[in-house]
Sequence to fold (326 residues):
Amino acid sequence: MDKRRVIVKVPASTANLGPGFDTLGMALSLYAWVDMSVAVDGITHIELLGSGMDGIPRDKSNLIYKVAQLVFKEAGLPEQELHIAMYSEIPLTRGLGSSASAIVGALIAANELAGRQLSMQKLFTLATRWEGHPDNVGASLFGGIIVAAWDGERADHVRLEPPPGLDVLVAIPQFQLSTEKARHALPDQYSRQDTVYNISHSSLLVAALATGRLDLIRHAMKDRVHEPYRAALIPGMSKILKEAVEHGAIATALSGAGPTLLALIESDSSRKDELQGFLLNTLEQEGVAADSIWLTPCLSGPEVDWLEQPTERVSLMEWIKGEVKA
Ligand code: HSE
Fold:
């Protein structure tokens, strides 16, 4: 085991991308940091920084601790007492992949401490099995746009470079929506018509993204598998998905399982304020308090920094000062 301290910066992600349910993900320029070292005092200590962390376990049932131990086990190493700190600017339970970022941060940090014994493919498989679907974890792990498939055993992916000149506006309602609840809103079966609709639109979207055909994205980013059913959980969503293109958006989607709504727009568009106003006003008219953030696709996966002295006193917050956005 490496005795140094490692800090891993991981991007947030949006899953589904319209018709690509459980398949298409994109990394976003909003981040979580996981700080990990083997406990020199032999006692596990977990510090969770930032807002929204109340109620998240700080003992050995903590997600980051458990995922790290999985890596050590897979690498044939014994359980390790750890010092862990985490700071996240990704709002929790809003459809921006906060748990996937934590899982990926834990996997990468633990694998670094273990001497990189596990391949990225192995980490992707572990992350997908843990999360249950590959689109958030894949985007956080590889950056850019991810086209992924998971059959319960095997996780495959192709990474696409996001088309240049694309900005992402996210409108984040202040209420939380668990993925579990949002998955319960979905039917068990779909008609052949809706299945064909999603296969064709998802395929078209991947081809449009791969070839930079921004003009097609508006038509391709339509879904019949999850958005129509989840719309009832998010007042204002249907209007936004239908009308945002009249306010400058290239396309819109529910981000992951929601409640965050995502709009793509050309970086040099003169209609950004109009689009932002439309999203926020629509939600407000429905009584939904929301914040909005301008983001860009994040082109790279996790960044790893080593601190040479495990006992070095600099805190995680001091280390990332100047980088934190939200
Ligand atoms: N693809 C998943 C879903 C993402 O929509 O349920 C959840 O974060």
Summary: The mean pLDDT is 95.
